[in-house]
Amino acid sequence: MLETTIPQFQDFTIKIYLFKDVKNSKEIRSNVAEYPFAFINGRTICSLEQIMAALYRVLIEKHYNKIRTKSLTSECLLCLAPTSNIGEVFKRFGLKDDTREIVCVEIIKVNNNTTDHISIESIVQGTEIEVTDDHLKQFCDKDLIRDIYKFDPSFQLSSMADLTRAVVNSIQLRGL
């Protein structure tokens, strides 16, 4: 698990988990609205920078009361996407019944006195691994990411850094 904050939003703590060999994606998918986590298909994530760019956008939207979904967790998925079609976002970034690699994100308001915290380990039946770019790139599907972000086939992405930069640009520029 990686626990972090964004300097401009010190009143939120962000926890990011990475699981491999997940056996219960179908069950998680059918109950996703009940959990305080964003569950993201690991094949759609190429780097930690991609996740952080989306989270920054989520907290900006929250700060300016521009949230378009029912929760910060669903807004996290929406902010990963190059479009604003929420149905398409869940189809592309959400879990499939056979998803084996899952990125989980939890956004916690600091000084929130809620006592009914749900443990991610009680939900996901898989092996938790360290959240690093090396682990994320093991699972990412470059062709799927090219398709999601609608990169022109002639657009050359010679490295993971190029892919990350193109994805982050798409996230940050959506809606402008």
TrEMBL record:
One GO cellular component term of this record is: EKC/KEOPS complex
Check the record and name the Pfam families matching this protein.
Answer: CGI-121 (PF08617)
Instruction: Give the location in the cell.
Output: Nucleus
Kindly give the Gene3D superfamilies that the UniProt entry links to this protein: CGI121/TPRKB
- Give the UniProt keywords, A-Z: Nucleus, tRNA processing
Instruction: Tell me the domain of life.
Output: Eukaryota
GO biological process, any:
tRNA threonylcarbamoyladenosine modification
The record's annotation in PANTHER family points to: CGI-121 FAMILY MEMBER (PTHR15840), EKC_KEOPS COMPLEX SUBUNIT TPRKB (PTHR15840:SF10)
Q: What does this protein do?
A: Component of the EKC/KEOPS complex that is required for the formation of a threonylcarbamoyl group on adenosine at position 37 (t(6)A37) in tRNAs that read codons beginning with adenine. The complex is probably involved in the transfer of the threonylcarbamoyl moiety of threonylcarbamoyl-AMP (TC-AMP) to the N6 group of A37. CGI121 acts as an allosteric effector that regulates the t(6)A activity of the complex. The EKC/KEOPS complex also promotes both telomere uncapping and telomere elongation. The complex is required for efficient recruitment of transcriptional coactivators.
Entry's family note: Belongs to the CGI121/TPRKB family.
This one is known as EKC/KEOPS complex subunit CGI121
Q: Which organism is it from?
A: Arxiozyma heterogenica
